[in-house]
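User: Structure with iron/sulfur cluster, tokens only please.
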Amino acid sequence: MHYVENPPNPWLKHSVEWLGEPPEAKLEVFEETQTRKIITHNDSPDVGFDYTINCYRGCIHGCTYCFSRPTHEYLGYGAGTDFDRKIVVKVNAPTLLRNELMQPSWKGDEIVFSFTSDPYIPLEANYKLTRQCLEICLEFRQPIGIITKSALIRRDIDVLQELSKHTHLAVFFTIPFTDREVARAVEPYAPLPEARFHAMTDLAAAGLSLIFGVMKVLNVAHGELIMLGGYGTYWLFALLRMDPFASLLVVIPATLVLGAVLYAVLFGFVVRAHEETRIKNSLLVGFGLALALHALALRLWTADDRSVTTAYGGAVLHVGPLAIPVIRLVSLAIAFALIAGLHLLLARWRWGKAIRATAEDWQAALLTGIDVRRAYLLAFAIGTALAGAAGTLVSVGYSISPAIGLEWTLKALIVVVLAGLGSMLGTFAAGLVVGVAEALSAAAFGGPYREVVGLVIFLVVLVARPQGLFGRPSR
Ligand code: SF4
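Assistant:
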């Protein structure tokens, strides 16, 4: 048995075998300026995509199993050490890509960055060819996929975020081994598995689509949770004379715990179901919970309307010709503060990022090491606490009764449909739109038409723009 530096090249008439040890392979970089095309078509039934881009040929990562090795033989090099040490850099790749994307014959199919090399080999840190090509894809809203083993992709998170907003983007990390010793032996110069997992976490938390599906749970008992928050405030006011706004300090933690319990007892089982059955099961559980909470409220507080009447309830702030009720103004300020707090929580807190990553793609989040069950639990508990806080704000402006649950669930659904599922900023804007539309219609046509206007908006948006005003169309 003797060491072979590169196996014989089938495209060459002659091959060289070293007598004794071959010289040590050194990194050599060749800049190719004569490349004529950069988008390559493949019709292999084994490959799940038709078009690829490779700004490099040969790959420094040097995985022993790499199926791209024989492609190096077309260049007259060997598939062995030549593949990971003689690297060809297509320096005019961005110019070629722009020209090809401008061709009328280009139909905008997905292009995958990968095939004859990892698009993020270490040389990319200097050449930035993959990054330039991604920026061009962004300009053209070109759908793309990226297959990589490299944490260098984190450098381009800004471009990837923009791409994911405007077109289809899928990032695949190949991590065949988690054991660093095995990985080092088989993929000698690729980043260690931990580095790839960290890169994936960063991408997932940045809200990128990494493939797979999304969390599908709809809580139709949301209105009943708002009702409970309202009754909690009512009780604290009636029994302890606690100011309704101050009662938020009790209602929010209490409903947070309630949400965690409800998730553990009811919804935790739903999310374990297959994705397709999740939405149906969550509807069934939600309706059951709504009925149970409605019956409980009837038993505890009867069907009578209850209201929280404070000394400052009738106070009005005059701004020019406008008379603004002070409690509505304070409620609005608290609602803004809660939304801003939620935004900060999701943007800054480690578990907030985990919740966003899980909502975007629970399977990819799971692969990055995120405890998806805990993220679900936290999301559900925070959602319930926000419903409780909303109940407090409702109780100071409206009367509450066991029947208000359905009305507020419908309002919440209208706002969510108008905004588009998962759009936080959109939800905020849609809430304002629905609120203003309802107030104007009540003033113009009378109070009973308030709900009708909301439902009309709901139907029009569902028909004209099913993904909502701020949501992205599903692909
Ligand atoms: S990273 Fe990919 S392209 Fe590079 S050697 Fe490994 S398998 Fe081949």
